[in-house]
Amino acid sequence: MPNSSTLFPTNFLKHSLQQYHHKPLSLLLSHYSSSNNFPHTHQPSSPPLPPQIFKSRSHEWGSYKLGDLSFYSLIENFSASSDFVSLEHLLHQMKRENRVFIEKNFILMFKAYGKAHLPHKALDLFHKMEVEFHCKQTVKSFNSVLNVVIQEGLFNLALEFYSHVIQSKGFNIHPNELTFNLVIKALCRLGLVDQAVEVFRGISVRNCVPDTYTYSTLMHGLCNVGRIDEAVSLLDEMQIEGTFPNPVAFNVLISALCKKGDLVRASKLVDNMFLKGCIPNEVTYNSLVHGLCLKGKLDKAVSLLNRMVLNKCRPNDVTFGTLIDGFVKHGRALDGVRVLASLEERGHRGNEFIYSSLISGLFKEGKCEHGRRLWNEMVEKGCEPNTIVYSALIDGLCREGKPDEASEYLLEMENKGHIPNCFTYSSLMWGYFEADDCHKAILVWKKMTDNNCNHHEVCYSILINGLCKNGKFKEALMVWKQMLSRGIKLDVVAYSSMIHGFCNAELEEQGMKLFHQMLFQEPNIQPDVVTYNILLNAFCTKNSISRAIDVLNLMLDQGCDPDFITCDIFLKSLRDNMNPPQDGREFLDELVVRLIKRQRTVGASNVIEVMLPKFLLPKASTWALVVQHLCKPMKVRKTINECWSRLCC
């Protein structure tokens, strides 16, 4: 083997040793690990590192050889910098020199592979530990690799790895609490909650004790599949077993209950938190705000925000974003703008999701000038709009009936390097169809194709609907066949549009054929009230009242309630096509009774709301039936008692 003088010139060694003679070893290692002095190509005939840096004047370090600690430091440095090429060369050199490998260094390398999203490298190295590097794996290194695989979302692979290692006699690894936590997490993420519960119940057999993380993970899995009551029971069991719940455990349950709309139980859990000495954090409050917004209790959500501040818990972007989104979804976008102003007063800045939600909401509510003003304010404040915000503005302008102006913003968006998505193009295409500019709508479709933006099923539905509305049924039929040939998922809009196209072309029977295909062959796509109204209008227009009644009966049997358009279709037909003309009172009255008997009080109420303005009063017996089903006896009794008490006073 060549000596050191043949590898490195004498002058270089002298200069290097003089330069680092009075410096700590860590600086010296940092120099070699961060510079190009460490070669990236393997030379079998010579070591890649100068042997001088591994010499030490101190005595031997236990079972380690001289310089082993220097190798360990290099492993740490290369792992931290994700320099896997140098790391691999270093491992080969250590193996050639029969250096001692320790598990701690392998764990560092596993974490580095996880950070670099290389789980298979971590698995490969784990299996080489004992065979190639003579380092026995323990549960520590096993857990480290298992965690890396799970963090990458490879849950099935993680479970296979777990079964292989635990069942293999060659490893002789006994799982601990962390192992079970990771396995339960993988099972829950796969939706295998029953198996997760089984693993949980078997923890005690392995002489392990579940901790707070174990309980929280399983509770989260149960909540995700709608088994909230079991998750709450698990919280009680957790406390009985002497495991003190932390805010994470409470937040899992509070969040699930709020999403379900069960705010009463959620608030009781918050009270329980205080009793247990757990202080609600921003996650707790965000869940409650979200729950209140879902219920439409926006004023209470604002009050909770103030309470949150009083309890020295600072609202974050999620809090404000949830509240603003709640205002927008309930048609109060201007109140959402006021919340944004409050957010900015507190030193926060609105993000792209907040601005897109508000701009979209303002345009949907017809407050176009407010939407434009908010856009200008956003730009003036230096908040650069991205694809999401541009798409919201383009959609809003199209709703305002200004697709040409929206097209200009699309061009500006592209010039600034923001790539339009399916929503952007479909909004513009819809805008041109609504403006009866079919040619420009098709140009948008072609531009979408030219820019390699995959056509989403929504885009196809908008194209088919627009072509049918503009009398281009043959073209729509071609697009429909293209969807089928490409295996693109059909939605209710696409089906309804094609049925409408058939009906407009006086091909009602083919429309019915497509309707039955939708009804009986597509279990995930069921007709909505729009689909039924298309067919009802087609048959009533042709004076086929009996066919229309058949469709109405099918509509009721499928659980779809009629709306005011349904009522108007029949009222018009009864008035114009019957001899003598009928006002439709008896027909609608009977429809109300049928809906009430099916426990469909909302649908019945909708029909009555159509009848009253037209002075088509229901029968007295129908009124009694409606009141009986709408009013709960206990509430009625309570209201009567309150009235009497006020009268007596």
UniProtKB/TrEMBL annotation:
Q: Keywords on this record?
A: Repeat
Give the residues annotated as coiled coil.
none
PPR repeat placement: 176-210, 211-245, 246-280, 281-315, 316-350, 351-385, 386-420, 456-490, 491-521, 528-562
Which Pfam families does this UniProt record tie to the protein?
PPR, PPR_1, PPR_2
Source domain of life: Eukaryota
| Keyword flag Glycoprotein | no
Is Repeat among the key words of this record?
yes
| Protein family membership | Belongs to the PPR family. P subfamily.
Query: What's the protein called, per UniProt?
Result: Pentatricopeptide repeat-containing protein At4g20090
The organism's lineage? Answer: Eukaryota, Viridiplantae, Streptophyta, Embryophyta, Tracheophyta
